[in-house]
Amino acid sequence: MMDRDKRLKSILPTLSGATQAIRTGLDRTPEREHSEPIFTTSSFVFPDAAIMADAFMNNSGLSIYGRVDNPTVDGFCKRLAVMERAQACEATASGMGAILSTLMAHCQAGDRILVSTGVFGATLNLVKNFFVKYGLEVELLSPTDISAWEQALSRPAKLAYCETPSNPTIEIVDIEALGAICRAHQCLFVVDNCFMTPVLQTPLSMGADLVIHSATKYLDGQGRVLGGAVLGPAELVEPVTAFIRSGGVTISAFNAWIFLKGLETLDIRMKAHSENAHQLAAWLVEQPQIAHVNYAGLPSHPQKQLIDRQMQSGGGVLSFSLKDGGREEVWSFLNATCLMSLTANLGDVKTTICHPATSTHGRLDDADRKLMGISENMIRIAVGLESVDDLIEDCERGLAAIAP
Ligand SMILES: Cc1ncc(COP(=O)(O)O)c(C=O)c1O
């Protein structure tokens, strides 16, 4: 390492979060590269048998094998850990891989887990259709009803799981309040921070035990690759690491590199996503064909006080429901737009639009969709970084298609 790299490394922890997000990560190799390298190799070689044995048996820190470790992946984990204020981070092949690994590592047959009704459709499918099969008891609770969680915790529970804001209803979980209740009942509290990212919210500093990411979303920021991460104190992340080593839910070095580079612009992107989403939400509220807009940045959000306390801004995702009609009208709206991409992903600089009831949450049964507050007349927009005027014009095309 060059002397100036050593000097920077020694002062880095004292620099601002935005600077650390750009400068923390991989040590420069003797090639003196500026951008971090991608180590595309499945295994690593050792100079002699004793050093190899030390790496395998004593975790000496030398990389061993791609399913277990990789310097590019480590660089991504270090950078994200600094941002989330986490002691440890483990990366996974997808966001669902991070959720699966966390539950596999921390739960066993006979355990009871509490899950917010406001979680991503696949998360609900995973716990209800698979973990229940292996002996986990799952109880679903409203993200906004803290007293219901407190009551549920009067019986022992291993883990409490939520997303905040919820997708796509934009309901907010009071992280501090739920964290305190979980702590009092020795229940692990896990927060999916995908919608906010550490730029807008750091759940670990508010009482969460573990944070989950679908890195696929904002950490990438340009809709290129899938990945996930689990963050928290070392003793809680280590069991997750052990599962990933055996379970093979490993991230590729290339994907980790995309996220590593994505984190360099996350701060500025999240602020821009929030600004655009705020302007679009304010316009949508004024439209007579729209019944209700769910956006965390609106002054009319019923949890405004909590939002101001917990989040830096409203983030990039909003949803709204049409005043008249249902699926047919929503599809007409979607089909009339052409700038916004008709796709289920979010967190992209390109704005995306979808009908949750027939896409992200389409595989749930009607009862679960109802429980999650997902109606047939709801549209979700993950606002990107195009000009807001152009996005408004695209929404006008949608509204014109359903004009009475
Ligand atoms: C909040 C949230 N968590 C987790 C996931 C799953 O992530 P992935 O698609 O990377 O597996 C998603 C995907 O949309 C999501 O929106």
**Major sheet, described briefly?**
7 strands, mixed
Low-confidence stretches: none
Instruction: Say what the CATH topology of the largest domain is.
Output: Aspartate Aminotransferase, domain 2
What is the straight-line distance between the termini? 68 Å
Order of helices and strands: HHHHEHEHEHEHEHEEHHHEHEHEEHEH
Placed side by side, the strands forming the largest sheet appear as: 1-7-6-5-4-2-3
**CATH level 4 superfamily of the largest domain:** Type I PLP-dependent aspartate aminotransferase-like (Major domain)
Task: Give a short synopsis of this structure.
The chain is α/β, with parallel strands linked by helices. It is built from 16 helices and 12 strands.
Task: Walk me through the structure.
The chain is α/β, with parallel strands linked by helices and 404 residues long. The protein has two domains: 3-264, Type I PLP-dependent aspartate aminotransferase-like (Major domain) (Aspartate Aminotransferase, domain 2, 3-Layer(aba) Sandwich); 267-401, Aspartate Aminotransferase, domain 1 (Alpha-Beta Complex). The protein has helices spanning 3-11, 17-23, 49-58, 71-84, 95-106, 121-131, 146-152, 175-184, 197-200, 234-247, 253-264, 266-285, 304-310, 327-336, 366-371, 388-401; strands spanning 88-92, 112-116, 137-141, 159-163, 188-192, 210-214, 228-232, 290-294, 317-322, 341-342, 352-354, 378-382. The strands form two sheets. A seven-stranded mixed β-sheet has the order 1-7-6-5-4-2-3, with helices on both faces. Helix 2 (17-23) runs antiparallel to helix 4, helix 4 (71-84) runs parallel beside helix 11 and helix 14 packs across helix 16 (388-401). The longest helix is centred in the C-terminal third of the chain and has 20 residues, at 266-285. The model has no long low-confidence stretch (mean pLDDT 95).
